[in-house]
Amino acid sequence: MESGREATHGDVASLLAAKEAENTALRGEIAAVRNENAALAARVTELEGLVAALHAKIGRDSSNSGKPPSSDSPFAKKPAPKRSVRTRSGKPQGKQPGAPSATLRLIDDPDDTITHTPPVCAGCGDDLADAEVFGVSRRQVFDVPPPPPRPYVTEHRVQSRTCAACGATTEATAPAGASGRVQYGPGVTARAAWLTCAHFLPVRRARRVLNALLGFMVSPGWVAGLRAQAARLLETRFLPHVRALIAAAPVAHADETTARAAGTLTYLHVACTQSLTAMHVGDRSRDTIDAGGVWPAFTGVLVRDGYAGYEHLDTIEHAWCGIHLVRDLRAVHDPDPEGQSWAEAMVNTLLLANDLSPIASPLHARPGATSVAAASTIDFAVGDGTLASIMEESAEEVKSLTSALLH
Predict the structure, then answer these.
(1) Which residues pair with 259 in a beta bridge?
(2) CB of 38 within 8 A of CB of 44?
(3) Pairing of strands 301-304, 381-382
């Protein structure tokens, strides 16, 4: 009896040991599966990030990146979606009622006056040569004057005189614009340079324009030589002054883009303010950036894009270009409009700030206007609406942006 119980106990112990071993093996398999699942989940997350990055890269164009508009595909580019909550005013395009006009007006001293008389009566056919004038209506035609029959020629007679005291002969000094026996004056020279350099007309076409409008039969070689002469004068006299003015400005902008110069593709560097522009060509290195002659002497705020070539200018303040900031925010918003709604709110806030920037603040119009209570009672026109209406329309955007920035 005891031996049977011992046998049964041994069988149970063997079975439990086998089950324990099986459980241990299963636990190992489960742990392996979990590790594999974790690795797969990590891989899926990595691939999702890669897919998102590829989608963002494919969706980049001139509206949400620094790529030029010329790189946009005319077949793949879709119309830009509406990005602002502001709506159209409903007013027709063009000049608005009450806006100042810019039409031609009659002048009191026309260059030529032609009188037109009716030859016969429209009622009975009688001759009106000696009839009394009943009324006169004035009608003026503004047109370009005809070219003169020949150029306006000024002769400079440079005299030489003999001194009665010593017998020496002295010749007068000719003006700077009359160094040779015959030459074109500064007026036609400036117009020829303007046509070829400012309007990029070919030499032969510029020559024909000068002949048709001014009556000058200049040669193609003379017109071609003016471009090099104008370039030398710009580089030696004009541009140094422009560079100095930009370097002394409180705020200036820098940018670079590809362009063709000297028959090859290169980079065109721009340094500018609201009214001044200086350009030079080269690569994108820091030495070429400094070769423009502006930024090493600049002490104001440099507005630029994210190109790292300007980072060596570490003694001045740098500001992000507004349009590049808008593009960056759109690049964040477009792949996930619901999750990144703060970016759209920020874009609209920046656009609103840009619209308001030219408008003088009324808060200093009267004493006490800077207080919160007084400021809340002030409103003024902004475009087609008022400041109060714009702030009311933008209240939800401001709330959304504030929430996104604080959390």
Answers:
(1) 266
(2) no
(3) unpaired
| CB neighbours of residue 246 within 10 Å | 25
How many alpha carbons lie under 13 Å from residue 127 in its C-beta half-sphere? 2
pLDDT of residue 266: 93
For residue 333, with 0-12 CB atoms within 10 Å meaning exposed, 13-18 middle and 19 or more buried, which class applies? buried
Distance between CA atoms of residues 185 and 153, nearest Å:
9
Concatenated DSSP letters for 8-35? HHHHHHHHHHHHHHHHHHHHHHHHHHHH
What pLDDT is recorded for position 247? 95
- Read off the pTM: 0.58
Closest CA to 396 of 355, 351, 341, 337: 341
- What does DSSP assign to residue 195? I
| φ, ψ for residue 267, nearest 5 deg | -105, 135
Mean model confidence pLDDT for the chain: 82
Amino acid identity of residue 220, one-letter, is P
> For 79-84, which contacts have Cβ atoms below 8 Å and span 24 or more sequence positions?
83/330, 83/344, 83/347, 83/348, 84/347, 84/348, 84/351
| CA atoms within a 13 Å half-sphere pointing along the CA-CB vector of 50 | 6
What does the pLDDT average to over 10-20?
80
**Radius of gyration for the chain, computed over Cα atoms and rounded to the nearest angstrom:** 40
**Alpha carbons 111 and 179: distance in angstroms, whole number:** 36
**Residues 401, 353: Cα–Cα separation, whole Å:** 14
- Nearest alpha-carbon partner for 63 in 51, 71, 55: 71
Task: With beta carbons less than 8 A apart as the criterion, state whether 56 and 303 touch.
Answer: no
- Residue-wise pLDDT for 249-297, tens only, equals 999 999 999 888 888 999 999 999 999 999 999 999 999 999 999 999 9
What gap in Å lies between CA 234 and CA 253, rounded to an integer? 21
Buried b (16+ CB within 10 A) or exposed e, 388-397: eebeebbeeb
pLDDT at position 63 over 80 = no
